[in-house]
Amino acid sequence: MNRLSRRTLLAGAATLALPARLQAQSRSTKPALVELFTSQGCSSCPPADAVLSALAQDSDVVALAYHVDYWDYLGWQDTLGSAENTARQYAYAKALGRRSVYTPQAIVNGRRHCNGADRTQIADWIAGDKASGEAPSVDVQLEMRGEKIHLTVAGAPLEAREVVHVELALFRSKAEIEIERGENAGKTMVYANAVSGLKTLGIWDGKPMQIDWPESGLVAANADGCAVILQSITAAGHPGAVLGTAVMYRHGGA
Fold first, then answer.
1. Whose CA is closest to 182, among 43, 45, 62, 57?
2. DSSP string computed for 163-191
3. pTM, rounded to two decimals
């Protein structure tokens, strides 16, 4: 079987395996958010991918992996990568005052970054945000209602002129990929919560909010999970501090 046929069959099998129903897991209503920017073509990324997979099992963390496309020139096109994921990382770089991006990079609560393989630093920052009162503090909940996914955001005070977006991230909770070329050639990697799409659902004004969207949209996007990110937007339009987040997996997911 040639490479194209094999990869096509693998992708098709993953799509067919997507279940019809989702369910919210037993998790904190105010979890931290850890976003990992990674690449299948980066030899330094596998340890960070493993950390992200472990964090995805933590009920106090929403863990998302954004596969970028700027390492594709090394000989392997990331099968989970996208220009949109790369654009989000560059937007974070501007918000954090950085002139460049790197992999593996972890962003914690939209506030600070570190090497994504440094689980100790990630844990310290999560704990530090809780101690300082900078952790996500808005109650955000997801649940199924019939054929729709229902989002509830509690009310909370906002600073004057603060702009807060309600972002929806669609993801594949588990993707097993055989890497044939590039720096990780010959490895079979298992990735957790790989984001396949991110869009803005609306703007939160501090008042209680409810939004519904069809569950069918996840299957159409080859996703079996979703996360909502309540995120402050900087004056320059870049992603800032995370105020709240929630996640929903398919039955049997992370």
1. 43
2. EEEEEEEEEEEEEEEE--SSTTTT-EEEE
3. 0.89
